[in-house]
């Protein structure tokens, strides 16, 4: 049986997820707003609740992107990673949802770090409306801020 959605049928909504437990010793995070050409990057601290935009990764193709991701992980030595996962406004998944989830699996497998997923609907719109010069990095900050606010 196929998981494909028949043409004209509504796309399935984002799956309901159990609350994620983030170990208390995870204090530093590196967040990504995945894109096929540009991937926004931000760093953040659980203790301070602050995020900082970093230079956006401009790379096409998984190998080129992962080389730059590896350099960022080496530079910032985060305890865990956070990725934004895009959905349609109604919560339905789309092509970029699958791409972002695949990126998260690749990060987990390649770097052995825990990867947390955040629903990133409207993060780019919010970044642009805030006047961001680098909307990708600003979106990564918004994603990471949302994640940090969810922590106890």
Automatic annotation (TrEMBL):
<dbReference type="GO" id="GO:0005829">
    <property type="term" value="C:cytosol"/>
</dbReference>
<keyword id="KW-0378">Hydrolase</keyword>
<protein>
    <recommendedName>
        <fullName>Putative pre-16S rRNA nuclease</fullName>
        <ecNumber>3.1.-.-</ecNumber>
    </recommendedName>
</protein>
<dbReference type="GO" id="GO:0000967">
    <property type="term" value="P:rRNA 5'-end processing"/>
</dbReference>
<dbReference type="GO" id="GO:0016788">
    <property type="term" value="F:hydrolase activity, acting on ester bonds"/>
</dbReference>
<feature type="domain" description="YqgF/RNase H-like">
    <location>
        <begin position="27"/>
        <end position="127"/>
    </location>
</feature>
<dbReference type="InterPro" id="IPR005227">
    <property type="entry name" value="YqgF"/>
</dbReference>
<dbReference type="InterPro" id="IPR006641">
    <property type="entry name" value="YqgF/RNaseH-like_dom"/>
</dbReference>
<keyword id="KW-0540">Nuclease</keyword>
<comment type="similarity">
    <text>Belongs to the YqgF HJR family.</text>
</comment>
<keyword id="KW-0963">Cytoplasm</keyword>
<comment type="function">
    <text>Could be a nuclease involved in processing of the 5'-end of pre-16S rRNA.</text>
</comment>
<keyword id="KW-0690">Ribosome biogenesis</keyword>
<dbReference type="Pfam" id="PF03652">
    <property type="entry name" value="RuvX"/>
</dbReference>
<dbReference type="InterPro" id="IPR037027">
    <property type="entry name" value="YqgF/RNaseH-like_dom_sf"/>
</dbReference>
<dbReference type="GO" id="GO:0004518">
    <property type="term" value="F:nuclease activity"/>
</dbReference>
<dbReference type="InterPro" id="IPR012337">
    <property type="entry name" value="RNaseH-like_sf"/>
</dbReference>
């Amino acid at each position: 049986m196929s998981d494909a959605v028949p043409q004209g049928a509504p796309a399935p909504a984002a799956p309901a997820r159990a609350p994620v437990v983030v170990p208390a010793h995870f204090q530093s995070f590196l967040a990504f707003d995945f894109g096929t050409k540009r991937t926004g990057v931000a760093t953040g601290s659980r203790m301070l609740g602050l995020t900082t935009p970093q230079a956006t990764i401009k790379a096409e193709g998984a190998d080129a992107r992962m080389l730059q991701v590896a350099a960022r992980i080496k530079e910032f030595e985060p305890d865990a990673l956070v990725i934004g996962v895009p959905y349609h406004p109604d919560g339905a998944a789309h092509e970029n949802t699958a791409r972002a989830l695949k990126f998260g699996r690749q990060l987990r497998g390649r770097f052995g770090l825990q990867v947390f997923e955040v629903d990133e609907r409207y993060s780019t719109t919010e970044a642009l409306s805030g006047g961001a010069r680098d909307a990708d990095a600003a979106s990564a900050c918004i994603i990471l801020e949302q994640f940090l606010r969810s922590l106890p």
